[in-house]
Amino acid sequence: MAVLKIARMGHPALMGIAEPVSDPRDPEIRRLVADMVDTMRDAPGIGLAAPQVHVPLRLVIYMVPEGRTDDGEGHPLTALINPEITVQDDALEEGVEGCLSLPGMAGRVARPRHIRINALDLDGNALEYEAEGYHARVVQHECDHLDGILYPMRMTDLASFGYVEEMTKAPE
Ligand code: NI
Prior knowledge:
- By secondary structure, this protein is α+β, with helices and mostly antiparallel strands.
- It has helices spanning 27-42, 133-144, 164-167; strands spanning 47-49, 59-64, 75-87, 92-97, 105-112, 114-120, 126-132, 162-163.
- The chain is built from 3 helices and 8 strands.
- Residues 99-101, 141, 145 line the site of nickel (II) ion.
């Protein structure tokens, strides 16, 4: 078990364009994913991208808790190597996001609600599936990290950006 240090917003590690993984079956990649899972669970969080743990590679992990997908079943812990997203329709949906690189904060972001995901798994096999709603949001958020994009950079109204602890207080 290795819990890695997570870079916070402002750190240069979060700002670059990550490089493709050349060999998904490299044992080093498997070890990195295992450490990222430990780190994500320790935080705790539901997604983590390699640049957040100071590794500039196109690799993310995520899971969707039960009850948060349209069918309610959630999505199991998944590693996506060299992921590519294709927007399936132009409809946007707003939702609240948080990020382990901005601890304690949240904000509303509009994102395409229906996407297709193409990636490789840890055995080098092609993965292809569609995601909608919250599931699509999580994947887009994580993949944004591979291009140096954090969710506040996607926000159109910073009035909804703030500390979760303050947002949950009753208005005075
Ligand atoms: Ni994030």
